[in-house]
Each structure stands twice: as C-alpha cells, then as structure tokens.
Amino acid sequence: MPIKLQFKQLKNERLWLSIIFIVGLLFIFISLINKLSFPDTSYNFLGTTGKAKLDPGAPVTQVFTAKENNLNQIKVLLENSDMKFGEKIVFSLDDSSCNYTIAEKTYNFLDLSPFIYYRLRFPEIPDSAGRAYCLKITYFSPYDRGSDRPYIGASEGEQFTGWSYANSGNGRIYENRTLQMRPSYGTGSFWRDIERLADRLSQYKPVLLKGFVLEIISATFILGTLFLGTAIVKR
C-alpha cells in the first residue's frame, strides 16, 4: 500500500476515534446534567433500620413536605428487589391525599437493581416548597414469595417527630418514623445547577480548590480535552 494512502487511512482512523471520544464525553456531560439533583440532607438514617415489607397490590405510602422549590426526584432504598417474570414495582409521586398521581415509574424484571437507590425522576415542580406530597410504592406479583418479598428500608432508630408512613399490607401506621427515601431538588437553571454542584463538591476540597477556582479547573479540563481531540485530528 502506498505511503500516502497509509497516512490518509491513519488520519481517518484518528478522526473517527476523536469524534467518538468527543461525542462520548458530551454524552456523559449531558447525562450528568439531565440527572443532576440535590438530595435533602435533613433525612438522617443513622440508627436502627426497619423493614417495610411489600405485599402484592398493597401500597406503602408516606406523606412528606418539600423543603425547596424544583422538586424533581425521589430516591428510595428498596432491598431484596430482584424480580421474576411478571413482577413489577410501581413508584409514584401523588398529591397529599395519595389519590392523584403526579409522576410514576415502573420497574420490572428487565430492569437491573440499582447499586443503592431506586429513583423516581420527573420534571421539576417550580413551586414545590412547603407543599405536601405522597410517595407511594406498590408491588405486584403473581407469586407467593413469603418473607422473600421486597422491602423498603425504614428509619426506626431516629425519632422523626410528626412524620409517619403507612403500610396497607398490614394495616399499620408507623408514627415518628420515615421510609428511607430522599426528596431531591434542582435549581431551575442549568448554570445554577453547575454552581450548586461546585459548592457541594467544594465542601470536600481544600480551600485552594473551592468556589470559583474549582469552576476554572473544571472548565480548563473540558476545554483541554476538546483541544486535545482537535490536535489529534490535525496531526
């Protein structure tokens, strides 16, 4: 093969590899921003953990009050959740009466169990601060799994005064307790999301890397990566 043809082929390969690399980087960045959410840190789950077991067709519910605007996600600690064919678990965000569904997400046997939390994502609710909502989790199964059925972690070691959750499977209301769930919020703006993310990250960094300096470093990394990809293409 002539040298010029070999060089052209090598250059084309570098071009495609660079395009794939840059597209992959942009995909990761966009995915991060789309899923970005800041959890309510007041939910303290230290202490004894209980089990709110799910009976088929019998929802477990908890009414909670959003502390910020732009509620956009609920994270739930669900254990023993590997499902068989025909099983599913429905997560829904309802109004305070637990009767009107605002958002819903269904997990079935085709979905991989998450590493920690199941997530119910929905478009940001701009005026959510101070409003009451109901988290509802309902399990459906044609099998009798007995004690092997899924359960939601519940905080029993900490007193959440005035809070409660209800399990319609056993007809009980658990006062001063909470399911291990975390409401999460956006900011309503892409740039405010980035600023808040930088603030959260800076809590774990030295003073030198906090605030504006951290943003400069992040921007430099992104621009540097794009520059490197361009340089590879031009070689």
Instruction: Report the β-strand fraction as a percent range.
Output: 25-35%
Mean pLDDT value: 77
CATH architecture of the largest domain: Sandwich
Question: What Rg, in angstroms, do the CA atoms define?
Answer: 23 Å
Give the H and E element order: HEEEEEEEEEEEEEEHH
- Flag low-confidence runs: 207-211
What is the strand tally?
14
CATH class (first level) name of the largest domain: Mainly Beta
Cα distance, first to last residue? 20 Å
Which strand order do you get reading across the main beta sheet? 7-6-9-3-11-12
The CATH topology of the largest domain is given as: Jelly Rolls
Q: Output the number of helix runs.
A: 3
Q: Which keywords apply here?
A:
29% helix, 31% strand, 235 residues, globular, 6-stranded antiparallel sheet, 2 domains, Jelly Rolls, alpha+beta
Describe this structure in words.
With 235 residues, this protein is an alpha+beta fold. The protein folds into two domains: 3-36 and 188-234, no CATH class; 39-185, Jelly Rolls, CATH 2.60.120. Helix content is 29%, strand content 31%. The chain has helices at residues 3-34, 190-202, 212-234, and strands at residues 38-39, 49-53, 60-65, 71-76, 78-79, 88-95, 101-108, 118-125, 132-140, 151-155, 164-167, 172-175, 178-179, 181-185. The strands form three sheets. The protein has a six-stranded antiparallel beta sheet with strand order 7-6-9-3-11-12, with no helix packed on it. Strand 6 and strand 7 form a beta hairpin. The chain starts with a helix and ends with a helix. The model is unreliable at 207-211 (pLDDT under 50).
